[in-house]
Amino acid sequence: xxxxxxxxxxxxxxxxxxxxxxxxxxxxxxxxxxxxxxxxxxxxxxxxxxxxxxxxxxxxxxxxxxxxxxxxxxxxxxxxxxxxxxxxxxxxxxxxxxxxxxxxxxxxxxxxxxxxxxxxxxxxxxx
Length: 127
Description:
Number of strands: 0
Helix content: over 70%
Strand content: under 5%
Number of domains: 1
Largest sheet: none
Radius of gyration: 18 Å
């Protein structure tokens, strides 16, 4: 994308195939990290606070801020929904790779994904 050179078809297909593997490969990694955690630790106060901020507070703040701006309603809706998405699955992999708290990162991914089943439809209703 940066260079004005176009890659050959086989290279583009290879990159596309590798990019489609990211989420399916990351889920077993997250599961193996969570295997050592107790069920009660999956919903500790720090994780719940993160989920509240990520899935409720930030999307509502974006909605409130964009309400006062002359923006296309579709663009506003997309911005609010993108803000309310759960934590990405690569969070755990990057935490593991760089020696950070991968268990905490995995708990965030798990809990935010679980709670987003409820919060995303609610955001759609609000919009």
